[in-house]
Amino acid sequence: MTRKTSITFILNPISGTHKKDHIPALIADIIDQERFEYEICPTEYAGHATEIARASAAAGRDVVVAIGGDGTVNEVARSLVHTNTALGIIPCGSGNGLARHLCLPLDINKALHIVNECKIETFDYGVINGLPFFCTCGMGFDAFISLKFAEAGKRGPITYVENVLKEALKYRPETYEVEDETGAKKYKAFLIACANASQYGNNAYIAPHATMKDGLLDVVILEPFTAFDAPQISIDLFNKTIENNSKFKTFKTKRIHIHRDEPGAIHYDGDPIMTGTDIDISIEPQGIHIITNPEIVEDERQPNFMLNAFSEFFNNINNVREDIGKQSHRIQVINKVLLRKLTR
């Protein structure tokens, strides 16, 4: 008798932006129980997803599926590196950076069908000061905003945009000494991002040409800019055209050391942490197995912005209506403040 493939679903009830009460029933309906045997493990406290994933890998489970946002995906994935257990993703977050890079559906039903196909590939991952990341890490403004976003409590794209609008024009760039295989250089930068995958999430492409299979980090340095530069920078991020913007400097490397004058925040896959003045970032080639979309090959893994945008809109329309209704007044106030600053 052929052994069934074993799957552990790790469900974070409070992460991301989706309600998840109906997901166990969807799993029972969609997953082929003649091919797979599965268990569903809800998380009960911070760090529980890591513990469940680590125990599942140690027990020889074939697949561990993270059901949640980018934080839950990172918690699960970092417990599976350099094991024979593959990561699956049911994206339920506000950014869904890794899922989007891999062209996984944002619709839960369709994502479960991808798990059912169980096509597994091997990918690189990154490490920043000993912490694994799978999409991006960095310092400067994006880490600062990640910290503000975490402190805000409420998730969702409106909260994120609100923080960006409030903080962008008053954030002070820092000076960094950046050293790679070619030597050391100093940069005054708004942010420095190191990317394994192409985007932060929400289709904001900080490294449009990044691939998770080349054994290299894509390093992106955003130099100081004025308020008049900001609209074009935003357009280039979402249009995958940052290489055309003179404010961005990019290069590839296997490892990088960064020194800054003061301790501060860094982020890994959007999760912020305070750290010291020295940061080491490196790539771990072919270190994690991930279930991928069988209809997409690596060279074609460039998500369609408009299709993803429409998909997310229809999947989350009720949440969007509720969120906009509650926060539209605050956004209007922030926009008025931003316009006053721009016209001074």
What does it look like?
- There is one protein chain.
- This protein is an alpha+beta fold and 344 residues long.
- 33% of the residues lie in helices and 31% in strands.
- The chain contains ten helices and 16 strands.
- A six-stranded antiparallel β-sheet has the order 6-5-16-13-8-9. Strands 12-11-10-7-14-15 form a six-stranded antiparallel β-sheet. A four-stranded parallel β-sheet has the order 2-1-3-4, with helices on both faces.
- The radius of gyration is 20 Å and the shape is elongated.
Terminal residue distance? 75 Å
Q: What would you report as the Rg, rounded to the nearest angstrom? A: 20 Å
- Which residue ranges are poorly predicted, with pLDDT under 50 across at least 5 consecutive positions? 303-328
- Which shape, going by the Cα principal axes? elongated
Mean pLDDT: 84
Count the DSSP helices. 10
Instruction: List the strand order in the largest sheet.
Output: 6-5-16-13-8-9
Work out the helicity level: 25-40%
What class, by secondary structure content? alpha+beta
Largest sheet entry: 6 strands, antiparallel
The total strand number stands at 16
Beta-strand fraction estimate: 25-35%
Order of helices and strands: EHEHEHEHHEEEHHEEEEHEEEEEHH
